[in-house]
Amino acid sequence: MDSQIVTFLINCPDDKGLVAKITNFFYSKGFNILSCQQYVNSIENTYFMRIRLNAEGTHISKKELEANFLELAEPLNFNWSVNYGDRKPNVAILVSHTSHCLYDLLERQKEGDLDCTISMVISNHDKLRPIAEMFNIPYFYLPVTKGAKEKQEEEVIKLLEDHKIDLIIMARYMQILSSNFINSFPERIINIHHSFLPAFQGANPYKRAYERGVKLIGATAHYATEDLDEGPIIEQGVERVTHDCTPKTLKRIGADVERLVLAKAIKCHLQNQIIVANNRAVVFPESGE
Amino acid sequence: MDSQIVTFLINCPDDKGLVAKITNFFYSKGFNILSCQQYVNSIENTYFMRIRLNAEGTHISKKELEANFLELAEPLNFNWSVNYGDRKPNVAILVSHTSHCLYDLLERQKEGDLDCTISMVISNHDKLRPIAEMFNIPYFYLPVTKGAKEKQEEEVIKLLEDHKIDLIIMARYMQILSSNFINSFPERIINIHHSFLPAFQGANPYKRAYERGVKLIGATAHYATEDLDEGPIIEQGVERVTHDCTPKTLKRIGADVERLVLAKAIKCHLQNQIIVANNRAVVFPESGE
Amino acid sequence: MDSQIVTFLINCPDDKGLVAKITNFFYSKGFNILSCQQYVNSIENTYFMRIRLNAEGTHISKKELEANFLELAEPLNFNWSVNYGDRKPNVAILVSHTSHCLYDLLERQKEGDLDCTISMVISNHDKLRPIAEMFNIPYFYLPVTKGAKEKQEEEVIKLLEDHKIDLIIMARYMQILSSNFINSFPERIINIHHSFLPAFQGANPYKRAYERGVKLIGATAHYATEDLDEGPIIEQGVERVTHDCTPKTLKRIGADVERLVLAKAIKCHLQNQIIVANNRAVVFPESGE
Amino acid sequence: MDSQIVTFLINCPDDKGLVAKITNFFYSKGFNILSCQQYVNSIENTYFMRIRLNAEGTHISKKELEANFLELAEPLNFNWSVNYGDRKPNVAILVSHTSHCLYDLLERQKEGDLDCTISMVISNHDKLRPIAEMFNIPYFYLPVTKGAKEKQEEEVIKLLEDHKIDLIIMARYMQILSSNFINSFPERIINIHHSFLPAFQGANPYKRAYERGVKLIGATAHYATEDLDEGPIIEQGVERVTHDCTPKTLKRIGADVERLVLAKAIKCHLQNQIIVANNRAVVFPESGE
Asked: Of A70, A135, C190, C280, which one has the fewest beta carbons inside 10 Å?
């Protein structure tokens, strides 16, 4: 293998000696362990590890590494994945009318803050096309016409599959995705919900926040699952508000929370910091290697 | 009137010239206006004012002042109240098992940070008596026995009425108050709920927060109303948490949020900063007079 | 006057009856008072007011209004200014190498969140020209060559004056402005400093934050004054960091604080929410009219 | 060894294979690794580990364990310490006039939130004695008389040594400790400074914060070192303030930040979460075992 950073994500039943066994395995194969983050869920007796390795100086092939690792993994019942950091993930952004998250993501990617390729923007409206064009990103306008929602979804799925999209970002996409769509991309769709979940699930959270008279509003980035707004939470943020705020000012204040929370969540996903288990997202902090 | 600070709280339908009319009224009676805070709800077309006056040098009696004010207030449909700052409010604290809010309130009052008299602590358990005794506050143990909840409530109400209690603080009191109780003390009962409402209404919020995998937990201080946890929100706070937190650590982290949020809410109430309308609490900031 | 929103900013020595006198004045001229925010500095005995008026139905000219207001203002020693909301301020953005604040401001203005015209971007480097061009904003490249700093400043000043620039934003402009420059635009230059002032004044704040091992980093937006980083603070923000952060990650985390803090400060300035006195900025909250 | 939790803190030059070597060592001795937290400082090429072990089922003595560990530690240049969790640390609290941190710490300890024995309160004033007495903690009044500061310090040191004090908390102790005092208790004195260091080092931070017109105030808990307020930072907190705040209200708002920040820092110290190197405190998060 070249001088590259390899990341393994592992979760399994907790057991004595796991960290010693795993770190030994990689050490014996000649890897330098850059960071090794663990989490033990003592309630469910489960173990999670994110381990980052420098492959420099190893002479093992990917195939061989994975075959050898399987010998360790199987008896210990690992769920695991490996990322070799040698291919930029392809990302598609789904939007409707609202521009702030789209701008934010396109800008971060362009400036080198998000390690991915943004392959396309897909929308059920044509409104945000000029923004995609400013950044030279292909824009696909796939309107949802009455009675033809299913057909539109098929077109979206085809686009995503044809372009080998690794991550789908719902950047305020105001359509409910079907179970079929969701299940085609497990843990590969990130949605931003404009409230502090589980408060104000569903539509019009800012209007409802105004009516309830809350003193803080928030936003939540989560993996999309079949149950709307019930998926594993990756990141949340809040901002103080007062009685003085109207639904319109709440929306404006909330927009800044949304864009930050979504960008942080995507960064965590792209850096392989997340392991999902039992509908909860274990999000390891960025290691300061 | 003596050299005292008088606070008027006013809300009414919005109208042209309100601020000029009201401030003129007090100016013409010889009051010095220390601060004058307003809020216009442009959605509901309502007007709110908190005005603080120094009575020094005026020669008007309370009775006369109120009679004169009524002449202004009635044609303009004011809801209003006045506080002369000449009597410390009597406060009762209701608790069950949990001590952190009780300690916090007793300490703040003792150190002069809460402008009130804490007349008593009432509990359905005898557990926290030593804390009340440390601070020389009478402790009433009124257990809830099976089938006799109503009778206990009557005893509590009698205690509160006999001691002319102005404000009742539910500092983690784990009993649901009856509508009769609630309605006997409108906008005079403040509860601390150990979640960021409207998320996790009801019981066991920290356990549910763990299960939902949230990344922030919070607390909410609100006036108690018939619908549990649906009353006007006075103050909210949050703190970041991670996947690493167990329900037990969430509880500990949350305790610090609870105590701060409750103390802030009570301070706002005691300083006459709050006007409730339409189940929303208008909370004017402390004026820096 | 047309149906327009007029904003007066007033500060003066504190005196009895000020709010009544001022609100009466506007009421008697037929204005509807949309909001009236006050602040009394009881240490320095000064009074501050921001009053927003709807001119609909008044028949007074600007000239007449100001002449009449002077009769009230002079005996009471008002410092005051009035904004008729009938002209969008012209803004110039000064940048060097760093793009995040520039993107953020251009995007907010384009999306209608900043009520101004961005007339130009000026830089001592040519690097960020493509960003300005994406948003169709003229870009002026005025390099600072050795020994000719003064000449460059004169060119910048000429540009600003020729285009009648009302507000100059130093969006990470890495040049120290001369006293002459600063004093040509009093309270019209807003700078973003990438630390939580007064901590880490001067150069390389993130490197110094790393070395000091702080657990929070911040950013400060302030009016530029002769003493570098000593001007009136408009807005500040912070974000938690850990020992794990390198100067590079601090920089990235800080960038998000900077862009939010700068945008908030500029919004406050453009909405006439700020009165500066004694090197301190009184920043009235946005009124929820 | 009994069924006890053992914590090792290690820092050393970074090297390949450290995590494998260390975890193997403990695994081979029969320990169950409860958590293993690491940090690599890639700028200084140093490595830090906090490892928590369950000794249940091991048959090794402390002496043997330490002797064996030394064989691993010496060639790799470990700085290390071990805590067997079998003895509660003795804590002394130093105070002057201000009560809020003292109350907070006494209450947390009494309620079981701080795993230590509070052996005494020492003060240069007699004012806070009643608080110590409420909690049945011995109070030593050692006034600082003119020209006899050195003598008083000697008495304080003698008290601390006689009672085998492990941790000294300066809970708003308004005396500057001599170098001799500081160096007698390296990394064993925690101070709370009432500002967001390095802003407002030295005296009267709230007054200076008012004068500077900051929009956030803070507090910093740090190990005391010879250079006043320059020691390794353990924890910091902030709270928003406005122009409306006087030095007095800043002080009150700051008090709540101080007490939380100090309590968090002490908890981290007592739970062996901190390694100091190069005047920076590596503070591992609480592991959710």
From this structure: A70
